[in-house]
Each structure stands twice: as structure tokens, then as C-alpha cells.
């Protein structure tokens, strides 16, 4: 069938001027709506502003920031702007660090969310003829239900396989003719490993063609590895439960940056220390204002995720801004001997070695008042007992890591399966034992 390349052509192809004037109108509305929450009423009065002070996007910087701490302190429903009887669902983040953050949704919020995900899935080439399988956990984790409703909105046959049980997952892929799969990147690699062990050739034995990978930082090298292993095109999906979940920003088929839907969100990139905007195109913290949300609109929400805006036009015809691959949260950043290091930099180097698998673990310790970093990485194939070969490999990994991160880690090559990521959870890449001191 002949389909449009866009799920929602008038919105997706809006010009920059149209996007901006739509945003200004939506911002005026959302700011007024925020006055239904005591939290924002208080913030506005502290700053001495009223909704009338906000006339366009140019006034955005007059507004207060909202942080994860604000959500925690007002747990669970303190930021809601509608009565609870008008809400139909809540989600909460996994709460890795403290009280979980709760996000409420009205039915319209859920419909808008499904539309955002549908646009993303359509953008990467999913069509009603496709079979979509979701290997994310269903429940509080937003990637389960979030992708489910989006894929149904596209009109695909959906397979809500949910997380875990890789053998069953692979059976579904084969038996139901799955063409589009969603998996977090560490789990996509796991699926491939199990396929290999079970003698399943992803190209010969499955119809997989599109993979949506997201929810955790991953490097371009990991994407390429996954694409080659599974014989698919893999697209980066950025989601954050405070904004809704998946569907916030997604790569198009150009695979050069993630379009963020600007009729839903206003984007700012700030310097997390000065809170001032960074010069265009520079790395900083992503700050998002929701424009459509009814139950729990958020003004200038500090995501703690670091990214930059990719300048220029995208050949796909969408003018919605593009974010560069997300580096990870500012709290994922390792500071070792005064040097800032992201786990994704380590991954990038490790995946440059044919011999290595995708699982690795960074351990930070304090030994005799000296901060040290150990990088354990798995071999891809069988463990070799050729000591000389291993030693040479180890030396070369250490050298290349040092060039990238500017400190010299201790590198340990470990047998396959030693560090294997769990089926259900986002991979843990860093263990910081220095905090015990
Ligand atoms: P939590 O992980 O706190 O339980 P979420 O599921 O909302 O809650 O996770 C959102 C976070 O996951 C983002 O803030 C970001 O740090 C990370 N993340 C999501 N998608 C991506 C992606 N494509 N690339 C890198 N990091 C991502
Ligand atoms: Zn594009």
C-alpha cells in the first residue's frame, strides 16, 4: 500500500515559524492550567509572576524550573492539576534513588501519548502490515504500555511478550513473523546471544527488520553491532516517565539525531551549574516543558539528561528539533581524579574490538587514598587460554581507553556470561565503591 511517510503529516511537517506560534499559544494555556496546582501557585508567587506575564515562548525563562526532588517532595499527587477522579492511570519511575516519582494521566493524556509513539513507530517505517513485539516489562515501566498503545494506534498486530524468557521471546519472533521489535539495547544483544546458542539465524529464520532501542544510554558502536548481529535497522528511542515515557524523542530513518515532538514539548538545553542556556549546538542538560498534559503538566522540568541540539535541517522533512544521542544522566557521570567520564565512552572503545562482547562493568574504588577504575569486559567467543594473546589484547584496550578517557584503568578480560545483564532491568555499568569511604 502507498502510505504517507508521516503519521500526522500537518503536524510533522510544520515549519519552524508554525511550530513556534503553536508553542506560544500552548504555553499560555498550560501556564494558566498549572495554577490549578498548589505547587505551581506557590512557585509563581515566590517569583512574583502571574500567568499574564507569559505571552510567548520568549517568556519561558521567567518560569520556575521543576526538578525530580520537587516530584519526590510532593509524592504522590502534589503536582496534579485535575481532580483524581479525572485521572485514569498512573506510572512511576523505578525510583533507583529514593521515593519513586509518580506521573498521573487523564484519558486525553494517554491518547496523546499513544499518538506520539505512533508517530515515532511510523517514522521508522512501521505500517499496519507489520507485526510488533514488545520485550519491555509491562506495568509501572512506561515502555510496556507506552509502546503497546502506540503500536496499536499504528494498526500493527501487536505481540505484548513483555520482559524476560528469551527462548519464548525468540519463538514468538519466529512463529508470529515479528517484523518490528522493541528492546532495551542490552537485551537486544542478549536476544542475539540466545539465538546464536539455539542455532537461530536472525536473517534466515526471522522476518525482523526494524528494532527500536532505548531506555538506556548506548553508543553508536553498540547500535552498529546490534544492527549487524540481528540484520535490522536499529533506531534510538528516548523516553522519560516524567514526560510520559517512550515517544518523547525518536530517530528518523536518517539515523542522525532524535526528533523531539515540539507540539508536545518545549526544549531548552542549559548549563546545569549556571542554569543559563548553552550556546546553540553545545552539550548541556535537557529541560522540557510539557504543552499538552492535563493531569500533571510540568514546567521547565530538569531531566538531568545530557545532550545537544543538532543544528540544521533534517532531510526527512520534519522540522521538529533533533537531539543528539543521549550521553546518560548527569548523575551517571564518573568523576575520577578530576576527569569527567561517561560509561558510554568506555563502551564505544570496547565495542571497537571484534574479540569483545557487549557486557562490561566499571568498578571505582579507593585504594590507599588513590581512586582507581577497573574495567571488566567479556570476551565475545570462547575463552582463549593463549595467555600472550590475551595480554596483548588487554594492553591494547588499556591504551585506547586511556586515549579516550584520559585516565588509565585496570582492564580485566573475563569469560562470556560472567557479567551478563539481567533480562528485565536496565544494565548496570558502574559500581562506585568509593562512596563507602
Ligand atoms: P528510571 O530509569 O528512573 O526508572 P525512566 O524509565 O523514566 O525512569 O528512565 C528515563 C531515563 O532513561 C532517562 O532520563 C534517560 O536517562 C534514560 N534513557 C531513556 N532513553 C534513553 C536513550 N535512548 N538513550 C540514553 N538514555 C536513555
Ligand atoms: Zn528526520
Compact description:
The chain has 437 residues and is an alpha/beta fold.
Structural class: alpha/beta
Tell me, briefly, the overall form: globular
In this entry the ligands are:
adenosine-5'-diphosphate, zinc ion
Overall mean pLDDT score?
94
Distance between the termini: 63 Å
Count all strands and give the number: 20
State which percent range the strand residues make up. 15-25%
Largest sheet: 9 strands, mixed
Radius of gyration: 22 Å
**CATH class descriptor name of the largest domain:** Alpha Beta
Given the structure, what is the number of helices?
12
Task: Specify the helix fraction band.
Answer: 25-40%
| Uncertain residue ranges | none
Examine the secondary-structure arrangement and name the CATH architecture of the largest domain. 3-Layer(aba) Sandwich
Strand order of the largest sheet: 4-3-5-6-7-8-9-14-13
Q: Your description of this structure?
A:
The strands form five sheets. This protein has a nine-stranded mixed β-sheet. It has helices spanning 9-12, 16-34, 38-47, 68-73, 107-123, 142-154, 166-175, 185-197, 202-205, 220-230, 343-350, 387-405, and strands at 87-92, 102-106, 131-134, 157-159, 180-183, 210-214, 233-240, 245-251, 258-260, 265-270, 284-290, 301-307, 309-310, 322-323, 334-336, 339-341, 356-367, 370-379, 410-414, 430-432. It is globular and about 75 Å long. The N and C termini lie far apart (63 Å). With 437 residues, it is α/β, with parallel strands linked by helices. The model has no long low-confidence stretch (mean pLDDT 94). The chain folds into two domains: 9-331, Rossmann fold (3-Layer(aba) Sandwich), CATH 3.40.50.12780; 336-432, GMP Synthetase, Chain A, domain 3, CATH 3.30.300. It binds adenosine-5'-diphosphate (ADP) and zinc ion.
Amino acid at each position: 500500500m502507498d502510505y504517507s511517510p508521516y503519521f500526522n503529516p500537518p503536524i510533522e511537517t510544520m515549519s519552524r515559524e508554525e511550530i513556534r506560534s503553536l508553542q506560544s499559544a500552548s504555553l499560555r494555556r498550560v501556564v494558566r492550567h498549572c495554577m490549578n496546582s498548589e505547587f505551581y501557585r506557590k512557585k509563581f508567587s515566590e517569583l512574583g509572576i502571574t500567568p499574564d506575564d507569559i505571552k510567548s515562548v520568549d517568556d519561558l525563562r521567567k518560569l520556575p524550573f521543576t526538578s525530580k526532588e520537587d516530584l519526590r517532595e510532593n509524592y504522590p499527587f502534589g503536582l496534579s492539576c485535575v481532580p483524581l477522579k479525572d485521572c485514569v492511570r498512573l506510572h512511576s519511575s523505578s525510583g533507583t534513588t529514593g521515593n519513586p516519582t509518580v506521573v498521573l494521566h487523564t484519558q486525553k493524556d494517554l491518547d496523546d501519548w499513544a499518538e506520539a509513539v505512533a508517530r515515532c513507530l511510523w517514522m521508522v517505517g512501521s505500517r499496519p502490515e507489520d507485526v510488533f513485539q514488545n520485550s519491555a516489562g509491562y506495568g509501572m515501566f512506561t515502555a510496556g504500555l507506552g509502546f503497546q498503545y502506540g503500536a496499536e494506534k499504528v494498526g500493527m498486530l501487536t505481540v505484548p511478550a513483555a520482559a524476560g524468557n528469551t527462548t519464548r521471546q525468540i519463538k514468538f519472533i519466529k512463529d508470529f513473523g515479528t517484523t518490528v521489535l522493541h528492546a532495551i539495547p542490552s537485551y537486544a544483544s542478549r536476544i542475539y546471544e540466545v539465538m546464536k546458542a539455539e542455532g537461530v539465524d536472525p536473517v534466515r529464520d526471522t522476518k525482523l527488520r526494524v528494532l527500536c532501542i532505548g531506555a538506556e544510554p548506548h553508543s553508536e558502536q553498540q547500535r552498529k553491532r546490534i544492527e549487524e548481529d540481528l540484520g535490522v535497522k536499529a533506531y534510538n528511542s528516548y523516553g522519560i516517565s516524567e514526560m510520559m515515557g517512550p515517544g518523547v524523542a525518536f530517530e528518523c530513518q536518517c539515523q542522525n539525531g532524535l526528533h523531539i515532538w515540539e507540539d508536545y514539548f518545549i526544549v531548552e538545553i542549559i548549563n546545569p551549574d549556571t542554569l543559563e542556556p548553552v550556546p546553540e549546538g553545545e552539550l548541556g542538560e535537557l529541560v522540557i516543558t510539557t504543552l499538552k498534559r492535563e493531569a500533571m503538566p510540568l514546567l521547565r522540568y530538569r531531566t538531568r539528561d545530557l545532550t545537544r541540539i543538532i543544528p540544521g535541517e533534517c532531510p526527512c522533512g520534519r522540522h521538529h528539533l533533533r537531539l543528539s544521542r543521549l550521553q546518560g544522566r548527569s548523575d551517571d557521570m564518573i568523576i575520577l581524579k578530576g576527569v569527567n567520564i561517561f560509561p558510554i565512552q568506555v563502551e564505544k572503545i570496547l565495542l571497537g574490538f571484534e574479540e569483545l562482547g557487549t557486557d562490561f562493568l566499571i568498578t571505582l574504588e579507593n585504594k590507599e587514598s588513590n581512586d582507581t577504575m577497573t574495567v571488566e569486559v567479556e570476551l565475545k567467543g570462547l575463552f582463549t587460554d593463549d595467555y600472550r594473546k590475551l595480554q596483548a589484547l588487554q594492553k591494547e584496550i588499556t591504551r585506547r581507553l586511556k586515549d579516550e578517557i584520559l585516565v588509565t584503568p585496570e582492564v580485566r578480560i573475563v569469560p562470556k556470561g560472567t557479567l551478563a545483564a539481567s533480562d528485565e532491568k536496565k544494565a548496570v555499568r558502574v559500581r562506585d565503591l568509593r562512596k563507602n569511604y
